[in-house]
Write a structure and sequence with these properties.
Elements lengths: L6 E5 L4 H12 L3 E6 L13 H10 L4 E4 L5 H10 L4 E4 L6 H6 L1 H21 L4 E7 L24 H19 L4 E7 L1 E3 L18 H9 L6 E4 L11 E2 L1 E3 H16 L10 E7 L5 E2 H12 L5 E4 L8 E2 L4 H7 L7 H14 L10
Parallel strand pairs: 1-2, 1-4, 2-3, 4-5, 5-6, 6-11, 7-10, 8-13, 9-14
Antiparallel strand pairs: 9-12
Helix pairs in contact: 1-2, 1-8, 3-5, 5-6, 7-9, 7-11, 9-11
Uridine-diphosphate-N-acetylglucosamine binds next to strand 7, helix 7 and strand 8.
């Protein structure tokens, strides 16, 4: 890239999706400024969280870091005054579905209130380009498969976490309607899994994992005894839940494609003004039993499992129609389920205690 290097503010950059996206931003020669309150991360030896120290090791580039919550507007203003931000990628949010049902106000304050604060400060500083980290959860129980972006959203969201993503999408739409200068892209993630191929960064659930792949990885490494398969009587090929698992590096590259659309890319540097949502998925569904089998193959470990009751709030099947992202962003997911499991296993086996340096 020649000329001016664009500066991207990444909120929630210390987390799973954020850290992998930053690797790609730095590789693509963007400058990166991070705001994160470290609510879900491990501190490193220096001033950065451990995940970002490792991102610096992978990329050999520096990251400018501010430890702050989005509730603190004064710090946000400092970030925008000290850096000439060209665009924002907004990840910072709480994301535990079960917890969100117990602490709905905490979720709305963080996820919705935090987003409004960020948007207000962006407006003050005339920064009007944002990529929002949304989720396929906004579709609720899908009416048709594969799911296209024009599928209704908000109906059938079963928990405050999911609704907070839906609400922020609606706020962003209203914002654009009020001022068409804004360029806003919502990326609706299906099921991000895997880890950076180096094995240096990955997902590090601080508690017992809720999601399937991190749970399987902990069984494979001997931290947990067996996987409970939630439901084996769904109307799916083998009776277990079907999801669209997407490698975290593919997901990260989707953010770069979205950013290029927003900022405009040589030789057509006009940039995007509007509001647009894109599914980030592979378009393929895999059952729980298929994921367990693929993980066994990749890790060469046997994974014990037991078939149990359905989990409340789960849908039988969910997978993306990802053609809009292909046609409009030039993006497709490239990695296979085996790649996802192999990279997840490399991360988990090299870091049995996640980002904690000592094994526990
Ligand atoms: C979950 C969240 C969703 C979030 C997404 C992010 C819930 C209800 N939904 O989706 O809001 O956006 O993660 O990745 O938590 N499974 C088991 N055993 C387990 C864990 C899961 O059988 O121990 C099954 C589930 O029933 C499902 C599949 O594995 O069929 C995937 O589950 P999970 O990884 O939790 O993702 P989602 O439920 O799709």
């Amino acid at each position: 890239m020649s000329g001016h290097r664009k500066t991207i503010l990444v909120t929630g950059g210390a987390g799973y999706v954020g850290s992998h996206t930053i690797v790609m931003l730095l590789t693509e020669r963007y400058k990166v400024v991070v705001v994160d309150n470290l609510s879900n991360s491990v501190k490193g030896n220096g001033s950065l969280p451990e995940s970002l120290e490792r991102v610096q090791t992978i990329t050999k580039c520096d990251i400018k870091f501010y430890e702050s919550s989005l509730e603190d507007k004064d710090t946000l203003r400092t970030v925008f005054s000290e850096n000439k931000i060209d665009a924002v990628i907004h990840f910072a949010a709480l994301k535990a579905v079960g917890e969100s049902c117990i602490l709905p106000l905490t979720y709305y304050r963080n996820n919705v209130g935090g987003s409004v604060n960020l948007l207000e400060v962006m407006k003050e500083f005339h920064v009007k380009k944002i990529v929002f980290s949304s989720s396929a959860t906004v579709y609720g129980d899908p009416q048709d498969l594969p799911i296209k972006e024009d599928h209704p959203t908000g109906q059938g969201c079963t928990n405050p976490y999911g609704r907070s993503k839906f609400f922020v999408e609606e706020i962003l739409k209203d914002l654009w309607k009020s001022d068409e200068d804004w360029g806003i892209i919502s990326l609706r993630y299906f099921n991000p899994v895997g880890a950076h191929h180096s094995g240096l960064i990955g997902e590090d659930p601080l508690d017992i994992p809720n999601n399937l792949m991190p749970y399987i990885a902990q069984v494979a490494v001997g931290k947990r005894e067996y996987v409970s398969v939630y439901g084996s009587d769904y109307s799916t090929p083998d009776g277990t839940g079907v999801r669209d698992y997407i490698h975290i590096e593919d997901l990260a590259s989707g953010h770069i494609s979205a950013l290029e659309k927003l900022l405009g890319k040589e030789p057509t540097p006009k940039g995007f003004h509007g509001w647009r949502a894109y599914n980030l998925g592979t378009g393929k569904g895999h059952s729980v039993l298929e994921v367990i089998a693929a993980f066994e193959k990749a890790s060469k470990k046997s994974i014990k499992y037991t078939l149990t009751e359905r989990r409340t709030g789960d849908v039988p099947a969910s997978y993306a129609d990802a053609t809009r992202a292909r046609d409009e962003l030039g993006w497709t997911a490239k990695k296979t389920l085996f790649d996802m499991c192999a990279d997840m296993w490399r991360w988990q086996s090299k870091n049995p205690s996640g980002f904690h340096r000592e094994s526990s």
